[in-house]
Amino acid sequence: MATRDLTATVGGDAAVTAVEQAGQLEAHGIDHIPEGERHGRPRELFAVWAAPNVSYLSLVVGAALVLMGLTLGQALAVIVAGNLLWALTGVLAVSGPAAGTTGSVVSRAMYGVLGNRAVIALTGWLISAAYLALNWSAASVAAFGLARRLGAPDSPVLDGVIICAIAAATLVVSVYGHATIVRLYSVLSVALTVVFVVVSGYVLGHTDWSYQPAESLHGAQLWVTLVGGFAIVASTPLSYSNSPDLARYLPRDSKPMAVAGWTALGAFLPSVLFTGVGALAATTLDMSDPEAAIEGILPSWFIPVFVIAVVLNTVANNSLTAYSAGLTLQSIGVRLGRIRAVLIIGILATAMTLYALLVFDFLTSVNTMLELVVVVTAPAVGVYVADIWICRNRYDGPQLLDERRGSPFWYDAGVHRAGVAGFLAGALAGVLCVSTSFWTGPVSSAFGGANLSLVAGLVVSAVVYGASGRTRRRAVTREPGA
Question: For the whole model, what pTM was predicted?
């Protein structure tokens, strides 16, 4: 997938065929990728999803489970169970080759041309900006520490330069686009894995395999903690609804099982491995300050390598987010080219990061907001998976890109009521079942404060949409080219 033919068209006539390679700007945005321009194999998706998930944040999440009071065995079980939801990310990916366009366009089949704009503006654009800012903030703080260690002055100007440099590196990858991402991530996934395996070796040397929490959890308290831990782990795969964007260049006849499998496996394996390492670290290290704890067991010469790996992982993670957020902005109806759309989300998120770290610490507020992210991401995934099941993954890219009144996916005044009803029902169920630092829904309260929002949002949205949307979706679904 790193190399593909492009036929430029000028005035309706086919021009000279060019070859788009890694290092060249991607020519396509949300437009349909013709079959003649699709290349590659599903297995190439493994590295695309592995690189963002060989992650420092995985260590933090794993440690948090132990700090919540779980035993090592319980934490590891929750880590495996929560990461199984990467299977849903894989399922969403199969719509990319089928439609030949992005997930934010495919979802017009679920919500209608106009209804889709409102849903993806929230689930695919605003939330992306918050995630970009949070990830850049975490990487920047690590880079600040390395700069001080190397003798740099404690200067807000220098800190601002570091933030902008990390953001710029991210946006360069996003702007160059698909071919560059595929080629670069095959290298990054190996390099990052080597670094984090070394870190894992030092963690294993400090692991207390007989660890038991100071106070064991039992009964309702254990149940609430297990469910809460599951929600924390599973919220990560549910935040990646952009898997069709990375798979849309594959040939249409790519096997769906292979597309879903390589996508899910690429994210699942490193997520389980390194989240588990974070749980092991918390058995002896003070992971309330994870960066200091991890650096405290590493040799001094390796700390800069570790920090650079943290930054590179952030670049890999945020590049996918910014890339898809740019495509989402086009899908909303903003008439901009892909590059400008990527730069807009990048500039917004960079400004948020600078403000958070240099002017006013609003990250606590943003973190609180993200406690509720699953309330909208879970229903969006539930509706999407249900639609793939209902229409058997038959999507027609050119039909989906037709935004005219009366087009197949215009539905009623531009809105597919079944999709909107499924999404809103799932979101309402999530609100009623959520448990956060500032709001506990009545259903959650009835179950002792267990955060059931993720499961409730997924199931309710899929059931409501499946029940109300089946007849109408079949009516407008046809085989491409029919």
Answer: 0.89
3-state secondary structure of 294: helix
**Residue pair 396/414 in contact by the 8 Å Cβ criterion:** no
**What was the pLDDT predicted at 45?**
97
Rounded to whole angstroms, the Cα distance separating 314 from 312 reads: 5
Contact between residue 66 and residue 28 where contact means Cβ atoms under 8 Å apart:
no
Q: What is the pLDDT of residues 404-417, one digit of tens each?
A: 999 999 999 999 99
pLDDT, mean over the chain: 88
Cα–Cα nearest to 240, from 113, 415, 59, 53 = 53
Return the closest-CA partner of residue 135 out of 351, 368, 294, 317. 317
**Dist. CA 319–CA 142, nearest whole Å:** 19
Select from 87, 1, 35 the least CA-distant residue to 396. Answer: 35
Q: What percentage of residues in the chain have a pLDDT greater than 70?
A: 90
* β-sheet bridge partners, residue 6: 18
Q: Is residue 62 within 8 Å of 283, Cβ to Cβ? A: no
**AA identity, residue 290:** P
Q: Please report the pLDDT score of residue 369 as a whole number.
A: 59
- CATH code that applies to domain 4-371: 1.10.4160.10
| Cα distances (Å, whole numbers) of residue 89 to 245, 351, 377 | 12, 29, 12
Quickly count helices (H) and strands (E) in the chain.
23, 2
Q: How confident is the model at residue 272 (pLDDT cuts 50, 70, 90)?
A: very high
What pLDDT does 15 receive? 33
> Exposure pattern of 422-437 as b/e (b: 16+ CB <10 Å)?
bbebbbbbbbbbbbbe
Pairwise CA distance, residues 64 & 288, whole Å: 8
Question: What's the token pair of residue 266?
Answer: 């690429």
Q: How far is CA 132 from CA 139, 169, 352, 359, in A?
A: 11, 13, 9, 18
Confidence of residue 462 (pLDDT cuts 50, 70, 90): very high
Q: Which amino acid, residue 352? A: M
Q: Which residues are paired to 17 by β-bridges? A: 7
Which amino acid is present at 94? Answer: V
Render 399-426 in DSSP notation, one character per residue.
Answer: HHT--STTSTTTTBTTB-HHHHHHHHHH
Q: Which of 415, 88, 359, 440 is nearest to 237 (CA)?
A: 88
Task: State the number of CA atoms in the 13 A half-sphere of 209 facing the CB.
Answer: 2
How far apart are alpha carbons 39 and 5 in whole angstroms? 9
50-64 burial, b if ≥16 CB within 10 A, otherwise e?
A: bbbbbbbbbbbbbbb
For residues 169 and 177, what is the distance between their CA atoms, to the nearest angstrom? 13
The secondary structure element, H or E, covering residue 220 is helix 219-238
The amino acid at residue 480 is P
